[in-house]
Amino acid sequence: MRRFSDNPESFFKIWRKSLPVALSSPISAVVPTRILDRSEVARDVILLGLEAPELVEKVRPGHFAMALLPGGQAAGVALGIYEARGERCSLLFFLAGDRTHRLGALRIGDRLDLVAPLGNGFDCEGAQRDIAIVAGGVGIASVLLPAQALLARGARVRLFYGARTAERLVEAERFAAEGCELLLATDDGSRGYNGVVTDLLAREDAAEAILACGPTPMLRAVSAYAQERNIPAQLSLEEAFGCGVGGCWGCVVPIVRTSAQAPSFPPSDADGSDVVHARVCVEGPVFLANELRW
Amino acid sequence: MVDLSKFDVSARIGSLVLPYPTVGLSGCYGSGAEFAPYVDLSRLGAVVLKSVTRRPRMGNPTPRIVHTPAGMLNAIGLQNPGIDWYLRHDVAKFAQTPCATIGSVAGFSVDDYAYVCERLAARSEIAAIELNISCPNVAHEGETFACDPDLTARVVRAARATTDKPLIAKLSPNVTDIATIARSAVAAGADALAVVNTVRGMAIDIHQRKPRLGNITGGLSGAAIRPIALLAVYEVARAVSVPILGQGGIETASDALEFVLAGATAVGIGTANFADPRAPMTILDGIVAYMAQRNVRSLRDLVGAANTGFANINQFEGDEG
Ligand SMILES: Cc1cc2nc3c(=O)[nH]c(=O)nc-3n(C[C@H](O)[C@H](O)[C@H](O)COP(=O)(O)O)c2cc1C
Ligand code: FES
């Protein structure tokens, strides 16, 4: 049978351990929304505000949505839920390909169906009071809700935020306004530290816990940093999705079998190892750095 | 809303009668349960479960999915817990699925197929067995079966000997003459044919100068393969008279009707579920609306309706003229 880890470093709460039930979780649904506002917060970066009162109540930090493209004909787009307050949720995304361009072409008043909320998000209930949030590029879209939750609990939240250029450091001021301390990095030095954000992280005082979302190389560096120093780190992973709801096994990542997030699978014939492939969309997208075997 | 009770949209696959002709495809609709929050599964004809093998499989490295124009490439690599675990932990749950659950069997030898088929078919939760002899994503072995009429026959015959439940052979489009394979499968005892699995393909990242899929090659699905799949159904329908589960890029009711008119008794929806989990139900509604408009009482009257003239011509002109 399934074994659960008694990982002393884990500050995930027990609710994670009911993962199999999440498969038929009644909280996720097809949510019809309407576009309330649309702005291009930087070149090729779109912020879509959606009227979605029922979703606001359900969303937890780190949850994501599958945005179903109007007219179909292409897989939905998995996006972190950026804001959720009052009647309004929002999505923040880069115009990167055909599917995101179709989303970006939506106008105020248009309808957009979401499958949401999805995934196991960040646990913000831990006892730690000094938190580093590390975000790279579009990863910023998944960390506002956890930042707000942590700040509301009275934690000190430092946002380590990296992007290619100053222009790409979208929404940084928004995080400052919420109460985060900003530590910015750009590849070209046009704003903040000249270099990668994980180098900036290593130069500053260590936090008690880390939450991160961004491109895989950044997450790997955060993971290495955190494990060297024994800092618990939760990473929100990026992976190509098919269904987004656990039905296709297209989105996996290797994790230790003893993880509370490991799907109930027998030892693999291939390597007889203690590693299993977990689905980023169901078991994740947030995983503990020390449980990943990628 | 059209009154469904006035129209017969049932689909017969061997001894199994599906109330609706719309089927969630293997690897694309989970076990059904994953989609239960979004749809009424009792309005699905059946779900074909993810393929299961004799031993557990980790599957391929990531990326396993690449979105391509009008479709996607996948190379999952048959990740599954193996038949022992599957029977012990998973199959009992399928009893709760509000539609028929069709087991899918994959393997690397004739014996593998027979072994897994026998054990899976023995379970009451499983309404029928699909033999996935056409998976393009497991090095060589997986697809060779459906690419060779003799190997196809040997797998089907071995599986046939283990069960009386309806047996569906899932054919590959990556062959020169699918009609020959179809005849061979039917002669060996297949009750129905699933036509077709994915088309082999690949994509390359020009910045990193390497293939985009962890497995290098993958299977193309979605609208991009629809005309290929439709022709395959058409050719198979001309060659054999067993029911065909048509599939490959079906997104709308009109796509589904094309497959029915080409000779499909039922239609499978795979990749379209990723664009909208409600796709099978929307397609069912559209099929019924089409029937209502044209006063077609039974979907059976449409099966192969675009095919008859051609079949007659063949009697005079010989087959591959
Ligand atoms: C992500 C993914 C996983 C699949 N896994 C399986 C599988 O395990 N067994 C199988 O027989 N077919 C599998 N298929 C093939 C589909 O069942 C179907 O035959 C094919 O995708 C064509 O239909 P579509 O264009 O509607 O998707 C898979 C397809 C996709 C896209
Ligand atoms: S995207 Fe289908 S299982 Fe995760």
Describe this entry's structure for a reader.
The complex is a heterodimer of chains A (294) and B (321). In chain A, 18% of the residues lie in helices and 32% in strands. Chain A is built from 7 helices and 15 strands. Chain A has helices at 19-22, 53-58, 98-104, 144-152, 172-178, 197-203, 216-228, and strands at residues 29-42, 45-51, 64-68, 77-85, 88-94, 111-118, 130-136, 156-163, 181-186, 193-194, 209-213, 233-236, 252-256, 275-279, 286-288. In chain A, strand 1 (29-42) and strand 2 (45-51) form a beta hairpin. In chain A, helix 6 (197-203) packs parallel to helix 7 (216-228). Chain A is globular and about 50 Å long. Chain B has one domain: Aldolase class I (TIM Barrel, Alpha-Beta Barrel), CATH 3.20.20.70. Chain B has helices spanning 83-90, 110-121, 141-144, 149-160, 178-187, 226-239, 253-262, 272-275, 279-294, 308-317; strands at residues 11-13, 16-18, 22-24, 46-48, 65-68, 71-74, 100-105, 128-132, 167-170, 192-195, 199-201, 204-205, 210-211, 218-221, 244-246, 266-269. In chain B, the strands form 4 sheets. An 8-stranded parallel β-barrel of chain B has the order 3-4-7-8-9-10-15-16, surrounded by 6 helices. Chain A binds chain B through residues 23-26, 28-30, 68-69, 72-76, 97-99, 113, 115, 239-253, 264-271, 275-277, and chain B through 27-31, 33-38, 50, 55-59, 62-67, 69-70, 72, 74, 76, 79, 81-82, 84-85, 89, 223, 251, 271-279. FE2/S2 (inorganic) cluster binds next to loops of chain A. FE2/S2 (inorganic) cluster (FES) is lined by residues 241-244, 246-251, 279, 281 of chain A.
